[in-house]
Specification:
single chain; 5-stranded antiparallel β-sheet; about 20% helix
Length: about 230
């Protein structure tokens, strides 16, 4: 009888230990999985931030409000205002909201920002030029909501990796690329990190690239590029 009791006790202990191991592994796996795919608040002071996938523009700001600039060089008569159809997340890719319109100085006001701002093409097709409406441009051309200096000062980090073979800033068939990405982050005084911002190659159709990328970071916190 005593042997049976010892066997039952031993079996119960092993079973309990196995259950504890499985639960611990599942908990660790869920945390790791979440850390890879989205922001995870581990404490009040520690936050893991996901890396935006290719074809997604990521903006870090130092505020819970920000107005996404959609001027896209409207001052250039060669280009004019550009349409956009974007999905935007204010929590590092967890939830998304669709925004459609034509670029203007009003921009796209965002509130309740809890993580990185992610911007991607709504239909996910990675069409060349889908991001061409994005940009601050010069203050004198963009004095509205998105262009006021207080809004520019909120931007601290810009990250972008294009899909291979794409140029998200220049539409298909473009021959004249002048002024694309011109003054895009002008006067963003707290923008100090572009280490993960990749400029895609120009489309083969482009024959005029004068002023392409000109002053893209002019007057920003990247003083070495001014």
């Amino acid at each position: 009888m005593a042997k049976n009791n010892r066997f039952i006790t031993t079996f119960a202990f092993v079973a309990l230990a196995l259950v504890f191991f499985v639960l611990s592994f599942a908990s660790s796996y869920n945390l790791l999985d979440a850390a890879i795919n989205q922001d995870v608040n581990l404490s009040n002071n520690v936050k893991i931030t996901a890396v935006a996938p290719p074809g997604t523009l990521s903006l870090k700001v130092n505020s819970d409000t920000f107005t996404v600039p959609t001027v896209g060089n409207v001052n250039s008569s060669a280009i004019g205002a550009r349409a956009y159809d974007w999905s935007i997340s204010v929590d590092g890719g967890i939830t998304w909201t669709r925004y459609q319109g034509t670029g203007s100085i009003a921009g796209i006001p965002l509130e309740n920002i809890t993580g990185d701002i992610w911007i991607k093409e709504y239909d996910g097709e990675h069409t060349n030029g889908w991001l061409s409406a994005f940009g601050f441009n010069r203050p004198e051309d963009n004095a509205g909501a998105s262009g006021v200096q207080a809004n520019r000062n909120k931007l601290t980090v810009v990250e972008f990796r294009d899909e291979e073979g794409n140029n998200s800033f220049i539409p298909n068939g473009t021959t004249n690329a002048q002024y694309y990405l011109y003054n895009t982050f002008y006067s963003c005084t707290n923008l100090t990190d572009i280490s993960h911002f990749e400029i895609p190659a120009l489309p083969s159709t482009v024959t005029n690239a004068s002023n392409y990328l000109s002053n893209i970071f002019n007057k920003s916190g990247l003083t070495s590029l001014e």
